[in-house]
């Protein structure tokens, strides 16, 4: 082999080595890559689980608070309902009295009685 050919072969080998060095380093470190992905996925799963539990607790507490408010509203609604019933009954009685009065007035007009 001539000196020029040796230099060319050496340059090709060096260039090939430099080109493949990052890939070889990545291949050497790839043994821990899948483990890191698995560990990250497990941590993410635990985080999602804790978040879901927290959301569930919030919903449960919110529903409990709404139930308590509804109970308190029901207690106050009873008194309001009685007052409304009384007012509506008085209005109905007054309306009936007015209709009776109008009927008597019409009868008196046509019969001439006082």
Which features does this protein show?
114 residues, rod-shaped, 2 domains, mainly alpha, 93% helix
Description:
There is one protein chain. The protein has 114 residues and is an all-alpha fold. It folds into 2 domains: 1-30; 31-111. It has 2 helices and no strands. It has helices spanning 3-29, 33-111. The termini are far apart. The mean pLDDT is 78.
Radius of gyration in whole Å, from Cα? 46 Å
Q: Would you tell me the structural class of the helices and strands? A: mainly alpha
Helix and strand sequence: HH
Count of helical segments? 2
Number of strands: 0
Strand percent estimate: under 5%
Mean pLDDT: 78
Q: Uncertain spans, ≥5 residues at pLDDT below 50?
A: none
- What spatial form do the alpha-carbon principal axes imply? rod-shaped
Main β sheet profile: none
Report the span from N to C terminus. Answer: 148 Å
Helix content class: over 70%
Question: How many domain modules?
Answer: 2
Topology:
Layout: H1 3-29, H2 33-111
């Amino acid at each position: 082999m001539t000196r020029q050919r040796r230099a060319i072969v050496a340059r090709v080998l060096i260039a090939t080595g430099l080109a493949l060095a990052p890939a070889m380093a990545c291949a050497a470190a790839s043994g821990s890559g899948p483990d890191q992905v698995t560990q990250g996925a497990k941590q993410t799963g635990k985080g999602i689980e804790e978040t879901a539990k927290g959301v569930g607790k919030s919903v449960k507490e919110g529903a409990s608070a709404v139930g308590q408010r509804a109970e308190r509203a029901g207690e106050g609604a009873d008194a309001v309902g009685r007052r409304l019933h009384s007012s509506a009954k008085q209005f109905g009685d007054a309306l009936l009295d007015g209709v009776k009065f109008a009927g008597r007035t019409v009868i008196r007009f046509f019969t001439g009685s006082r």
